[in-house]
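Teaching note: in complex prediction, the entire set of molecules is handled at once rather than each chain in isolation. The prompt given to students was simply: 'Predict the structure of this complex.' The entities are:
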Amino acid sequence: MTRQAGPSRARPRWVLGALGVLAVSMVAGLLDGAADISPWQVLLQAVDWLPLVHVDSGLAPVEQGLLYELRLPRVLVAAVVGGLLAMAGAAYQGVFRNPLADPYLLGAAAGAGLAATLAIVMLPAVAGSIPVAAFIGAVGGVFLAYTLGNTAGRAGGTATLVLAGVAVTSFLTAIQTFVQQFKVEELQRIYSWILGDVGGGWDQLWLVLPYAAVSSAVLLLHGRMLDVLSVGDEEATSLGLRAARVRFTVLLAASLATAAAVAVSGLIGFVGIVVPHVVRRLAGGSYRIVLPLSLIGGAAFLVLADLVARTVLAPAELPIGVVTMFVGAPFFVTVLRMTRRSFT
Amino acid sequence: MRPVRTAFAGALLGTLVLAGCGQSGTTTATPTSAPATTSAPASASADFPVTIEAGNGKVTLTKKPERIISLSATHTETLFAIGAGPQVVAADDQSNHPPEAPKTDLSGLKPNVEAIVAHKPDLVIVSDDLDKVVAELGKLNVPVLLQPAATKIDEAYEEITELGAATGNKAKADEVVSGMKAAMEKLAAEAPKDKKLTYYHELDQTPYAATSQTFIGQIYSMFGLTNIADKAPDAAGGYPKLSAEFVAQADPDLVFLADVKCCQQSKETLAKRPGWANLSAIKNDRVIQLDDDIASRWGPRIVQLAESIGAAVSKAGAS
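The expected output is the structure of the full assembly:
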């Protein structure tokens, strides 16, 4: 296809292709794992889960249980988290008109990291305290950065906001490190949370899904407005767009998506930057196409990254954050070299 | 679970804070020459001077140390067990056993040399050379013994013997070691080995396990148990983070929890983890809650750890 083709014509084809990739990666994610179960039996079992169909997979109850309680929700959580992080990344890049913006820019990661650390140290016995704390921390971090940015600079200005995010990140990370110094024996748990994990079962999925639905809906509806915003605030205003308000809404939705993803999975780096860029290289820069494709592409990417994380050293696991960076970076560079189309 | 955490902390601190702690070996000749400057009076004991082959090289002590600082919970336990307790003036913040140990706010994981020296020690015992503590104390002519975490049971015995020699309690230390050896051999001999039981030793609910390559794994091997974590490749290390689905499928006969005190894990919390409710260890009530501290230290209390393992194995073997 020619790159000049308008997004309206290219869109369905790209979305269908991306959905195909996602479906293949999810099936792959379901078929392989640390437990030694033949892919054929997994497939039969997956068919058995479908409504109105009954197939005998020949699997023992404990194996059926682990597929249903561990592997299936894990694939789904990876998909949701990857989609949210990539879409939030694309949205942040649109709001800030900065291709290097990512979901963690505005203090979300630092806030989540600090809150999760406090939860690990102070509430080790309270089940589910870490995701709730991470969620509150992520929202709090963004809120702090936003408030500071608006107090320090022009309301709605992006440069001050980014700088406030950097300051908030440094400050919160300092407190987190300070707390860790007093609880050195908890370092391992904090460390493994920071490197990310999408295991944890259906609970994690139900926890993230409502926020995922709301934030995705808001962001996908704002694609066209982000396109208008990309011409500059004054032009956007002259075209009848309330730039500051659009920016605030998108920021809020993207931060909600980030907070939800961080809450269930810890800090998984690189997805929010690499996926939107790859999408832009392949399908053009319109946010009407970049946002949905980032959602689907991020989902496929994280499902595959998690597949690598839990099989490469099986039955041991690698932290998924290591895989996203280790595998993602060379892949990213390859795509940059292959397309050679500069993003402006 | 302290050795693992310590290893992690060490790895973290090692990579983030200090660039070259590996060089400590070259700078540790200092403690040897240290006593010369203090013009030591002729020792009353025939055991001194004594030279110990420690983790930081040969360390010579010209007289019996009377102001010992232990920055390792394991070594604090050992010192008290071998009768060196009265000589210990300060122990680190993790030294919670025995109760009479002079626990202070000194940190063994983030050692502060000034705070250590303020106690005027004539011997400092550490299990990790974190933040170049060995070299820095060496500069100040304070003798340091580095006795790292044991990787084999024999190393644990050896360290107890060496601490006995270093503190002038050699006879008592030898007695403790031979008592431990006898007790361990008796426990191993009593264990039913025909059952071919499998086990999972949990360090952390994420879930981190310990393989048979580790110190703790060796103790389990004495009872003829098969470790499910041994299927993890060497690259994953002695303390691999296992896949939850692998543990579910492996369905170990026995589950030993070393994350009870720290993280309140139990049969009930295990049953709540996705996919684990049907584990036979949970159904058959074979989840054993260990004492986190006993299960992570390589001191005299390994006998107590072995006793709890032995009891669980006998119970499982009987039914």
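Point out the following to students. Residues 1-44 of chain B have pLDDT under 50 and may be disordered. The longest strand of chain B covers residues 198-204.
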